[in-house]
Amino acid sequence: MTDRLSKAELHDRFVAAIGPSAVVAAGTDASGELVVELRPPLPNRVRVYIYNATNPPGGRPTREYKIQLTGQRRGERGEFDWSGIDLVLLCGYAVEHDVFVFWDAALRLDFAYSTSLEVQAANVEAASASGERVRQHRRLKTGMEVAICAPSQLVIQAIEERATSGEVRSRRADPQVTPGQPYMRPPPGGSATPRSRVFRFDPDAIDRGTNAHKKVQNQLADAVAARGWEPLSPSDSDPLFDVGWISADTAWIAEVKSLTPTNEERQLRLGLGQVLSYAHLVDWGVGINRPVLAVEREPSLAYWPVLCESHGVALSWPEAFDEFLDSCA
Fold it and tell me: How far is residue 38's CA from residue 131's CA, in Å, rounded to a whole number?
């Protein structure tokens, strides 16, 4: 009998297969589906519909692994949510072979409840045995589909292949540019991000939950507002920066980091990498993007302002916010 994993376990397996070097953040959206923020050159934000790929006994003469689309209510038609992301991935996981099967979500339109998607068991087994991607072609009413069977170590390559589909590119064309959304103050106490939406290994989620992080984030947002600029939080199509604003035809994208004597170096390194990625990915239709690393206090090592400046990153802390914001006008 084919093993079955819970939805949370499927999400964990998928994120682990991508690996920490490619994952910026991962969590679930309001409907409980996995949303992963990835590093370039992978698509920025990906929504993943993942199911157990099972191989039940009996049935068709050709052995198959299949998934069943059950996200909508019984009797209703379903469709995948492409809002606020760059790519929808539709996949099954055959746990006994550690193989992910990627169907083409862009070709799956208006499907019935419990629709089955199949792939030949021989292709899943071949991907597992060879350590290579194996493809299966099938003509649908909406176009020619290539299902990709990928062992877990090749999930990144499978995502890249799926992202180059012509159908996917047409869905991503002409996106509506929205400059963030009005700033949302993190709630006092506990974590600033609901725990159900954050994976255990996400160090940034841990920092976002600290009171020091929240205090600095709000101090920066208040200082921005005091200048007459609107502080912004990420919209669904933005990477997960902490505070943004627009001034002088420039989008300022800030990542906040709390600092302690024991974690200062790690936090600064993490924040520098994150904010460079965020500023690269934000597209608000303004002249340029400028990354800002806002920290709890002045770093104890004098080379950090020089290092940040060499990468075009503004490094600031609460006592220096006024001087820094003067330069943003």
Answer: 23
The answer to whether residues 106 and 167 touch, using CB atoms and an 8 Å cutoff, is yes
- Give the H/E segment covering residue 144: strand 143-151
Burial 200-218 (b: 16+ CB within 10 A, else e): eebebbebbbbebbbebbb
Spatial separation of the C-alpha atoms in residues 54 and 112, rounded to whole Å: 19
Q: Looking at the domain assignment, is residue 317 inside a domain? A: yes
| Domain interval for residue 306 | 181-326
16 and 161 share one domain = yes
Number of domains, the chain: 2
Question: Rounded to an integer, what is the distance from CA 178 to the centroid of its chain?
Answer: 18
The string of pLDDT tens digits covering residues 252-308 is 999 999 998 999 999 999 999 999 999 998 988 787 999 999 999 999 999 999 999
137 and 246 in a single domain? The answer is no
pTM, entire model = 0.53
Q: Evaluate whether residue 189 is within a structural domain.
A: yes
